[in-house]
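User:
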Amino acid sequence: MITRFPSVALVAASVLLTGCGGGALAATDHASAPTPASSSSASPSPSSEISAEAAARQLPGVGPKTLARIPAGTEQVVLVTGRGANSPLSTLALYERTDDGWEEAVSWAAHNALKGWSDHHMAGDLRSPIGVYSLTDAGGLLKDPGTKLSYDHGSGFVSPGTGFEGEPLAGSFDYVIAINYNRRPGTSPLDWTRPLGSSRGGGIWIHVDHGGPTHGCVSIAEDHMKELLRTLDPARHPVIVMGDAAALGH
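Assistant: Predicted structure:
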């Protein structure tokens, strides 16, 4: 059964914007400790029995070290490839595992953090964390669009103010997917638990794009967010593989 989290609006105002979206209320303590997907207990399924070489060829730009961090049981990969280590521009593509290997389902333009990427993300560094992380929980200001992920629908998902380029942030958190970096999986995206400590940041989400760089999150257009939410299936153990192209190539 899918867990529907109770809204935690009373907490959201003080913690919500740490990693996501930016704006006047941005704090340095949003999200939970990095939970690498490679530590997942998901068991492999028959469709995952393909060679590493085939998988690498079909996840463009993903090198052997990064590939090795993807759990054997994973059948859905959200691949976010940044243009450069210091660029806020990236591409988000969804890949699904088939009997013949990985197959691209969709690919969309995306934003990441203002200053690009980091393999040791810290609160307030304005960089998105590089890595492989599981995707288990979602939520938003708007009602569930039909996702199979756990979904917290509540008024705590607000994003006041403006972004780095003066763009309004309203609506950025209409739909969000929590990236399991420095957070406790199985909880609302608004949960403030930080296993690695608050200094390592958190609140790293996939959310609705507001037309500019984020504080640490990945953002895509609203229609694409709804499509992604409807497609991700916890039974297929989805993960996000994210970073600049050079980092992912290792």
